[in-house]
Amino acid sequence: MGITLDKISKSYGKIKALSNISFNVKPGELFGLIGPDGAGKTTLFRILTTLLIPDEGVATVAGYDLVKDYKNIRNNVGYMPGKFSLYQDLTIEENLHFFATIFGTTVEENYQIIKDIYVQIEPFKHRRAGKLSGGMKQKLALSCALIHKPKVLFLDEPTTGVDPVSRKEFWEMLKRLQQTGITILVSTPYMDEAALCDRIALIQHGKILEIDSPKMIVKHYPKPLYNVKAHNMYLLINSLNHYEHKHSVYPFGEFIHYTDSRKDFNPDDLKNYLEHENLFHVEIETTTPTIEDTFMELAK
Amino acid sequence: MKRFVGFIKKEFYHIFRDRRSLFILFGMPIAQILLFGFAITNEINNVDIAVLDQAKDATSKEIINKIAASKHFSIIDIIEQESSIEAIFKKGKVKAVLQFDNNFGSNLIKYQQTTVQILIDATDPNMASTINNYITAILKNYQSDINDNVTLNYQIIPKSRMVYNAELKSVYMFVPGVMTVILMLVSAMMTSISITREKEQGTMEILLVSPLKPFQVIIGKVFPYIFLSVINALVIVLLSIFVFNVPVNGSFILLGFESVLFIITSLALGILISTISATQQTAMMISLMGLMLPTILLSGFIFPISSMPLPLQVISNIIPAKWFIIIVKGIMLKGVGIGFILKETLILVVMTMVFIGISVKKYKIRLE
């Protein structure tokens, strides 16, 4: 009842949007698709929701073949596109009832499933969808995508353009939804959200870079990683970038994440170099790589 | 079925919540029919004229009274000498001057024929010829009046040549045309916009990923507009009957049936437009340029088809409006039955089927 993809490719004219994508999402899994804008996430979603036909490869969703059984897939999946796609001139309640009706069900019948999410926006149910805040729109869109009790839920960048508090709430809701046995495929450009998935696939330029659990994926990071700090951030970045042995330099909060190209790297060498470059209070310590580091390294 | 009803309910929400489209739907038909009926007209009313009556006999007085009594003219000045004619024209106070000679009445009795001079301000040539026609008509009328009672054949000869065109009521011609244009506009443009709006908003994506079948979406989109267009057609016919006294000589039911047919033709065109345009803007442009202009210009609504160059005459055949105008004129003005408009009706039916066939073929069950 999960999702399987086998060597899916898709091109728009000469542009290769997806090449040879293969992975499986287990039933009941919360699977994250992590990648920057233009990585091919939306194309992949559209293929899996039967909106596009892949040029090559086969895939099944909830056990149904993508091309042959597309009607069955349409009955069994919930889809929340990246762009807010509800009727702005209809109220919250009308939108929900409309989507319930076209899926041949009623709001009352499946109220249990959306209750958690819907109670938060129910006080505003007579407000038109166009007049809602980003967080509320997203809760409504999720309610509408869930109202027919789908087996598989596709969420394309559900938290883009949503405030941090609502984002956190949203992921808590996803976790609770997962408890009910729904398979969820979610895409996001935010690395912090990736950590909340069971497994993630890092995707860029239409290719999968790595697939693993968030905890394990950082193990794919090939080098020791260092936090570097000094009195002047700007000067520090410049100096590090000019250091002949540097491998990667990325600002990360109050630190710079640094890796060296030498196998036998000694942090003291770097410290000497930096102090020579007139930087004070230089601190260098090893740190564990994050998903973002892993992504940046693999995407290199 | 429940899904379908739910869909239609949603469509009505869209229509009634969008003030602009609601205005187009119901404001425009009324505004257009009133505009065409009242303002854009070939008739003249209350044109100011002056009279120079040198004869001052019974006949001239009677004619002047007759003209004064008509609603088309009002005599605002009686002048005494020929020399003041030019002055009164230059002031622009009057559009025409009627001049009766000294021996106007006596000539009529002596020779059974006499002449009257009509001077018309021809700065507006159309207006001038219309005025000429109206005055001539009144004179003719008077002439036949006096000939009724006597055996002698009296003749009053106006000194201007005339083409008989008198009581032509322009509104009779405009009603079928306006009705056609409005039904076309409302049906084709509104449906094509409402379908492309779903594409633009991204809701089409969700509708596609739902168990709704394509034909359910299309019929669901079209159905409300059939209903609203029928109301529109009814409003137009009622307005023409009660405001402009245009008769419906033929069968009201037949007119209704033919209108529904034409509405469905236009809706099918609207669907066709929506399948080839990605945005509301494009849909609107195609509807306006591709449908409205030919409908107004080539359908015979304003310019008679018989006086068009041959290539345009040929093109006019593929314009549904041409056939519908023939049908409406036939039913409303001539009072013909289905037998006389069978060919036109069949052409519309075939056109509709072709449009629907193409749309169904072109309708995408996926995004590309």
TrEMBL record, chain A:
InterPro entries: AAA+_ATPase, ABC_transporter-like_ATP-bd, ABC_transporter-like_CS, P-loop_NTPase. CDD domains: ABC_DR_subfamily_A. GO terms for molecular function: ATP binding; ATP hydrolysis activity. The keyword Cytoplasm does not apply. PANTHER family: ABC TRANSPORTER G FAMILY MEMBER 20 ISOFORM X1 (PTHR43038:SF3), ATP-BINDING CASSETTE, SUB-FAMILY H, MEMBER 1 (PTHR43038). Keywords: ATP-binding, Nucleotide-binding. Residues 3-230 form the ABC transporter domain. The keyword Zinc does not apply. Pfam families: ABC_tran. It comes from the Bacteria. This is ABC transporter ATP-binding protein.
